[in-house]
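Need C-alpha cells for this chain, all 410 residues.
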Amino acid sequence: MKKSIVILTGGGPAPGMNTVVGSIAKTFMANGYRVLGLHGGYKALFSESPNYVEFDFLMADAIFNRGGSFLVMSRYKPSDHDFECNFNLEFFKSNNIQLLVTIGGDDTASTANRVAKFLVEHNHTISNIHVPKTIDNDLPLPMQRPTFGYESAKSEGARLATTIYEDARTSNNWFIVCAMGRSAGHLAFGIGSAAHYPMIVIPEMFNKTKITIDKIVKLCVSSIIKRSIQGVNYGAVMISEGVFHELSEEELSNSGVVFSYDDHGHPELGKVSKAHIFNELVEKRIKQLGLTTKCRPVELGYELRCQYPSAYDLVYCTELGIGVYQLFQKGNTGCMVYIDHLGKVDPLYLHDIQDPKTGKIPPRLVSLESDRVQAIIENIMQYITPADYSEASKYIPNPEEYDFRTILNW
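Here are the C-alpha cells for all 410 residues:
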C-alpha cells in the first residue's frame, strides 16, 4: 500500500496555516506519498469515522496563499479514557500512515507525542513532527526567530491601528485599543510602535511593580495630559490583553470581567471586550479629574487571525512545510521544525525549551532592555515626567501620581 502522512491543525488560526499545509502536501506528494488532512483536529482521531480529505496538487495549490485554515481546527484535548476506548487505530493502519504532522501550540505538540507513543505500544510506529504557530510570538524559538503568523498579524494590526489613529486625529478624540496577546506584549508593542501610539501598555512593563487597574488607567491619563500640554487633543492607547493575566482575582472582580475557560484551562479572553472595560475606567477617571477628553474603545483580535499571510509568512511557512519533509527524511521525530534566518532546518525538541520542573514552555517576553524597545519608549511614547509637573498641574492637581516612571516604579 502507498505510504501516507496525515496533517491536523489545533488551537486557533494564524496567517500562514494554509501555506504550511499546502507546502507539506506539495512536497510529500512530489515524493510519492498520499497526503491526508483531518478536519476537527485531534477529535477526528477519536471518532469511528474521521472527517478527512486526500490532497491532490490542485487542492494544495488552491489553498497555500489563503488566510484561515482549510483544515477545520479544534481545541479538543483527548483524555486517558479517550485513548483507551475511542482511539481509531484502524485509521492509521488501513491508510499506512508513516507520519503525523501537527500544526498548533505546545498543547497540540504534547498530544502528538502521546498519540505517537500510543501507536508504538499498539505495534504501529510512526514519526510525528510539529509546526509551532501563534500570532502572539511568545514561543522561545532560538535566535529570536518569530513564530509564523506574527508578522502578518502585526502588519494587519498596524494597518487597522493607523486607521484608528487617523480617526482620532480627524475627530479630536482618544481611542483605547486592546490587542491580542495571552501573556506577552509582542503583538501590542509591535502594532503600537508601527502606528506611533503615544502610550503602549504591555505586561512586561510591570517588571518592578504589581499590575493593577489603577496603574493602567494612570498610564493612559498620563499620555492624555502630556499631549494636552503640547496642544494635541487626540491620540490612542494600545493595551495588550496579557495584562489581564497578571491581575489579581480582586482586581478582576473590581473590573467587572467574568472569564470562561477553554479545554486547556486558558481564560477565553476573546469573549471579553477588554477595550470596552478599560475605556469605561479611563473615562470615569477623566470625569473625576474634570477633563473633557472623549474616549472610544476598539478591540483588535479576531480581525488578525484569519487574514491572508504577508509575503514574509508566505516564504517562511513554505520553508517550514518543506522543512517537515527534510526532517522526516533524516529520521527525526517527536520534534518541532525550526528554520533559522538563513533557511537552515533543525529539529527543536520540547524538552529543550520546557521548564524542567513544570514541564511548561515559558513564554518569550518582550525584552524591555533591548535598544529597539527602549527607542520607542524614549522617543515615540508620550507621558508625564518631572519636567512636566508645572504645566500638568493646570490639568490635574497631582501630576506626580501620573508620572510614567513613578507609576511603573522604574
